[in-house]
Amino acid sequence: MKLIGSNTSPYVRRIRLLLTDTPHDFVHLDIYGEGRDELRRNNPTLKIPVLRDGSQEVYDSRVIARYLSQKLGLTPLSWDQENQLTLIDGANDSCVTMLLSRKSGLDVEADVMFWNLQRERIMTTLRTLNAMVEGGDFAGWDYPAVCLYCLVDWMHFRELVEFTGVESLLAFRDQHRHEASVADTDPRNA
Ligand SMILES: N[C@@H](CCC(=O)N[C@@H](CS)C(=O)NCC(=O)O)C(=O)O
């Protein structure tokens, strides 16, 4: 099995954590630089992660997680867990948009409808996730908790949000620093 991604992507990191006990090759690509041709050859949507298992290619972390769950005989996610993933992905996708805008030299702090919508979505989802953490919804180390960890740690690393009012998310992150593969996949070491 081969996982194609990058050392810094939170979407890739969640699959790396899911694959902790499963032998696989990890291929890091610089998707905005010299790795872009390789990305083009592997995924027409030009996104990571991509999983290759024999002749089967699988795109998108959510589908990859479902593929691996079936293959590894894991318990399928409940509808509430699926909703947790949707919240996490909502914030994550908007943060990717903000980061790419920032890298493009745009002023993402400007009072512009498109960025206001992203900022609003990020904060409404983070406040909801923060309340869920405080309510004990992410008490274990299941796949949604892994995804939340990857999101919070990446937002902190990229300095994408202020955590004022959602400090329980950072406490959640700090509580899980020592889980398997977390240190090995830290984007700060990329
Ligand atoms: N829904 C996708 C999102 C993946 C995604 O956005 N990955 C980012 C890296 S963190 C990416 O490939 N971005 C490339 C781009 O937006 O051009 C998934 O869950 O895999």
From TrEMBL:
Domain annotation GST N-terminal: ranges: 1-76
Any Pfam family the entry gives: GST_N_3
InterPro entries: Glutathione_S-Trfase_N (IPR004045), Thioredoxin-like_sf (IPR036249)
Name of the protein in question: GST N-terminal domain-containing protein
Organism this protein belongs to: Marinobacter zhanjiangensis
